[in-house]
Amino acid sequence: MKTTKTKGSLLLYFVSALLAYSIWVVMDAIAKKLVGTYHVSQIIFINTIFALIPIAIYTSYKKSWHNLGKANYKVQIARGTCNLLAMSIFFFTSHYLSLVSLYSIVFIAPLIITIGANLFLNEKVGWRRYTATIVGFIGVLISINPFGETYNKYALLAFFSPLFAATGWLIVKKYGKQESIFSFMIYGKLFLLISSAIILINFYKIEVGFDLFLNMCSGLCRGIGILLAFTAASKLPSSLFAPTQYVQIFTGALIGYLYFGDIPTLNNFFGNLLIIGAGLYIVFREIKLSKTVVSNTLRTSILTINKKN
User: pLDDT > 70: what percent of the chain?
Assistant: First the structure.
């Protein structure tokens, strides 16, 4: 009975992780729809307000508001700046790129982290992970097909999104080990809220009813996704949690096709196989060496989660 219950719990948390990353794809799709009409800062501002609602409720439920007083504000500001830049570039370029192509680029973040950990954190990275990193970059090139007729120049700008996301993670890894997950969730959102509001002063445009509704739903999706991913990551073995992030590529391809009419190419298919394979190898190699799993995405849950499995 206990074994059955344990397997059931693992399945529940595994599905929660898949749901979290899929929900984020819905958020990205909404941003892709809205960014052609409204400034990126306005989308982020309204999105963040409503993302804070489930996070604040969860923080109250856990009685963890006291953890915010222990925050390192320099780390929070540095990470918040990286997240703002990563999110802004992601939303902006989503207007010009298909979701599946954009996710192909996004998932170079773990590859950049691998290189950054070696160069800036003095972590030992062997030839196996460097080889996987090279394979991953080759996969990105195949997917976006820079020498083909369909290449979009905004793909180059999109590369800065995972670059800033990876930089934020490296800052956390080096200086923020003592930070609370609640301080990251709350202060991260407050930084996005304030900074986007300042930028928005010059670009505000009244949102029509349904657009505002979509943006509000997008924020709720983001907040709920963060909580689902955090809960799943804290309960699942690393080997089960790590692969769930790649569901975004498949969900992105599906939503892109059904709603935006974006048809994935053979380049997308074969390129993403290499990207997923390289990313999974790096994650599982990290698990084997240090029992640590990293959520290597653009998402707010870019944190190190120590496991005991």
Answer: 87
* SS3 state at 53: helix
**In the predicted model, what is the mean pLDDT of residues 222-228?**
92
Residue 297 has pLDDT above 60, yes or no: no
Q: What is the rounded radius of gyration, in angstroms, for the C-alpha atoms of the chain?
A: 19
Q: How far apart are CA 100 and CA 269, in angstroms?
A: 9
Cα separation of 185 and 179, whole Å? Answer: 11
CA neighbor of 196 nearest in space, from 88, 91, 41: 41
Provide the β-strand partners of residue 141: none
Distance CA 68, CA 179 (A): 9
Q: Which residues pair with 305 in a beta bridge?
A: 293
Q: Which residues contact 70 (CB under 8 A, 6 or more apart)?
A: 178, 179, 180, 183
176 within 8 A of 75, measured Cβ to Cβ:
yes
Each residue's pLDDT tens digit, 68-125? 887 888 888 999 999 999 999 999 999 998 898 898 888 888 788 888 888 888 878 7
Q: How many angstroms separate the CA atoms of 238 and 280, rounded?
A: 11
**Nearest-5° angle of CA 81, CA 83, CA 86?**
110
3-state secondary structure 84-96: HHHHHHHHHHHCC
* Amino acid (one-letter) located at 125: V
Q: How many other C-beta atoms are found inside a 10 Å radius of the C-beta of residue 80?
A: 22
Identify the DSSP state of 63. Answer: T
Distance in angstroms (rounded) separating the CA atoms of residues 79 and 107? 19
